[in-house]
Each structure stands twice: as C-alpha cells, then as structure tokens.
Amino acid sequence: MQVNSSEDINIPKINSSAKYRKQENKFKNSTKQKNTKKIFPDSKHSESITSSDVRQGDLKYRKPGNYKSFKESLITRNNARVSSNEKFNSRKSTALIKSKTISFNEIPSWMKDNVYIRSGYRKPNQSFASCFSSLGYLHNEFINVWSHLAGVVLFIVLMFVTAIFVFPSIKTISIYDVLVTYIFLTGAVVCLLLSSIYHLFQCHSEQVANNFIKCDYIGIILLIIGSCVPAFFYAFYCHNFLKTLYISMMVIFGIITGIFVMTPKFSDSEWITIRASTFVLMALSGIIPFVHSLISFGLSYTYKALQIQYLTPMALFYIAGALIYGARIPERWFPGKFDIYFHSHQIFHFFVVFAAAFHYIGVINALHWTHKLAPICPAF
C-alpha cells in the first residue's frame, strides 16, 4: 500500500493530555508540600520553603522548628562555635607554654630544688635576653618574679609618699628619723629586687644561678636588719647607748649569717631546713631588745613605742612563710598540682611583701607617736 502524504494518516500527539498534566502538577505540589513539612512542620512559612532551598545551602532553613526556636538554635550554634574557638585558643596557648617549658625529669641537676614541682621549668639557655623574655609567659617562677617586682614598685612609691606627706607633717622630726625609716624602705626594695632578679635569671646557667641566689640571701639579711633598725631606734629612743648596742648587734648577726649563706653547700636543696631556720633565728634575735624594753619600761610604753599591733602580724607572716617554704606545703601533699600557681615558694613571697607592708605601717605610727604623743623619755 502506497502512502501519498502524512496528511492521510491520523498520528496521535505525544504531548500529555490536559487531564494527565493536571494529575502530574497535583503530584508535584503534593511532593513539594511533604518535603516542606518535613523541614518546617509547624512553620507558617512552610508554603514558601522547599527542600531545594535547603539543598542550596541557605543556613536559615537548616534547623527544623518555628522561626523563634530556629533563631535561638542559631544563637546557640554561634555560641558553641565561639566556645569551641576559645577552647582551641586555650589549648594552643597551653601548647605554646609547654613548648617553652620542660618537666622535672628534663632539667639538669643544679635546677632540681623542689622534687614536688613536676613541670613548668624553663629550659637552661645561657642567654640573659631569653631569661628576660620569660616575663611574658607562664612558668613555675613566673609568680615568684612578678610578686616581688610588684613589691619593689610598692615600696618605691612609699618612699615618695613618706617624703612628701609623712615627714613634713612632723615638726620635730630629726635626720635620724628619716635615716632609720629609709634604711627599712631601702632594705625592702633591695631584698625584693634581688629576689626578682634571681628568679628571673635562675634558668641561665649553673654559675649565674649560684651567684644570684647568694644575692637573694643577702637581700633577705638586709631586709631583716632594715626592719630591726627602726624598731630598736624607737624602743630605746631616749637611750642612745642601748639603741646603738642593739642595732650594732643585729648588724653583726647579719654579717655572720651572710658569711654562712655564702658557702656553696648552703644553696643545696638538702639544706633547705637549715637555710630557713637560719633566717628565722636571725629575725627572732630581735626578741631580746623587745624583752629588755618590756622589763625596763613596761608593757604600755613598749606596746606603743614598737607598735606591737603591727609588729605581731609582721612576725607571723615571716615565720609562717618560712615554715611553709621549708616544709614544701602544699605541693608536698599534691605533687604536680601546684607547679604554676600557689606552691610554697610563691606563698612565702607574698607573705614577705605582706609582712614588710605591716612593718611600714608600724614604723610610721611609731614615728608619729614618738614625736607627738610620747611622754617624757622614761628613765632606765
């Protein structure tokens, strides 16, 4: 059969009928609504949000729930991200600190002073610049350095305060009053400064550490002498021979102690108890003039002349600090837990500053009482 043209044949169209298109659109809309409800089942915005929107990476549609709860979830997520970043930075900072410090087992024998401090040691570097840079990061000497540097600043400020405000307020003040006051303040500054220098450069080398620790001991002796001079001066203010005798006695004790502490073995860790006891005994020798004044002049005069209400906490801080330092408390009880903060040497440092501050208040009050309120010099 021959076909003349395509017009003679009725070929059905491939396009879907209207009914089919209607069913297809209905099916698509139904699928679209189901996908939307899965994402935001309770949202009034569900008609305009589809799974394709989510797939496009729009963050605001990634969390199911209504808009309010979704906003809260975003805030929570952002806070969690910030917290995660902070933890990361903290871990990074800790790792940086650890990279600059070593453990007790890694340090040379000359640095092994406290077996209960297990970490946080600076690496021996033989560089003063490197030691000085350790002011800027945490290690087990960081608090020791800064606590006494702060004390240096404090007592230098007190020097100016005393010269500007205290001395001009006393009309009968003598050059000796100024001298004994500044002997104490200078002793405090020198002691705290030498202590800071030793702890800062202790990691340089064995020779430097040994030299600076002797300077540290000399500073302690100067502070003890400087503290006793104004106390003896005002306790025996009207008796030149006695105050000269006791001040000279304390200076001699200081020289003997200085010779003793300069011996090489005195710096060894095995001598820590003897070392602490030496300084305590030197300080306790000041009780002799106190008892003499008490017997000769009575409790009332001695209490006011020496300002016992300030000398008592001073003595307690010094003694407690020395005992804590000698006993290695609290790191003895919890080895490795107080490597950076609050080990015995740090407590001792803070107690020294507190004690010196109390003594300064006592000296200034003794100065005022002697020149303004003191009775006629008591007879011996």
TrEMBL record:
InterPro entries from the UniProt entry: AdipoR/HlyIII-related
Membrane topology label: Multi-pass membrane protein
Keywords: Membrane, Metal-binding, Receptor, Transmembrane, Transmembrane helix, Zinc
Chain residue ranges for the region called Disordered: 1-60
Biased composition, class Polar residues, residue ranges: 1-18
One Pfam family, short name: HlyIII
MF annotations from Gene Ontology: metal ion binding; signaling receptor activity
Entry keyword Zinc: yes
One GO location term (cellular component): membrane
Residues engaged in binding Zn(2+): 199, 345, 349
Membrane-spanning residues: 145-167, 179-201, 217-237, 244-262, 274-298, 310-327, 347-367
Subcellular location field: Membrane
Family label: Belongs to the ADIPOR family.
Entry protein name: Adiponectin receptor protein
Organism: Smittium culicis
